[in-house]
Task: structure prediction
Amino acid sequence: MRRFILLVAIFTSIYGSSQELNCAVVVNAQQTGNENVQVFKTLEKQLNEFVNNTRWTNKTFKTQERIECSMVITIQDYQTDTFQASVQVQSARPIHNSSYASSVYNFNDKDFNFKYLEYQNLNFSANQFESNLISVIAFHVYMILGMDADTFELNGGDAYYKQARDIVNYSQQTNSKGWAPPSGGDQTRNVLITNVLSPTFKEFRSVLFAYHLQGMDLMAGNVKEGKTAVANALTQLESLHKRRPNSFLVRVFFDAKADEITDLFSGGPAVKIDNLVSTLNRVAPMYSRKWRNIKF
Result:
């Protein structure tokens, strides 16, 4: 996978320096029993070109500033031009003055059914539905951009989240899975963007900012100070938990961060984090086994 990402980086550096993403798109069709069918290889190639060569914003990104990310599409079944699939989307953000990249977005989208004819044009429209394939991929692109921007500036991802919401709004008219308004315990694209933009979950975005810019980015200069800032940022989730216990958005956060948090506080200079461990066990009990490894 690392080699594949490197090849994508080389390819995109040749064909322009304005694109925002350095994304490895993988189409895995093993579950179909026909993974060597040419259409899967063509789809993978076209999606890599689509994601990495489309201008998603009006900003210019230098090659080294592109966001490292991946989309692994697992095809479960297909009939002619109809595909039943899921997609695992991940992105990471470099930490200041280090070679380390911190996971920011880690989302398993299980509702990814689409139609695709080999070699069909893949074009994104900001205001118009093109296909479910395009809408789902574009939605996650803007979530990647939004969350990345939030790690550098408080609420810096507003414009990208609003575009993701626009995609939801025009795509839900197709009645495809994942776009419908929230209902009960749904964990869909619609629920995700609705929660991210809701003041009810405001701590999610403030924690993204404080955790990375005010915490992780200090590590190279002062590990103890950086760890303390990360711990302080995470305790903000207590307020969100009290308001909306066991929320989907908190799970999204820890799906990306649980391993990193465990590693961060399982060694190195000691900081006072007894309150942090208590908070983590309350707000993210699904990761309680990991929290047991934290030393304080």
User: Anything to note?
Assistant: Confidence is low (pLDDT under 50) at residues 1-17. The first helix runs from residue 2 to 14.
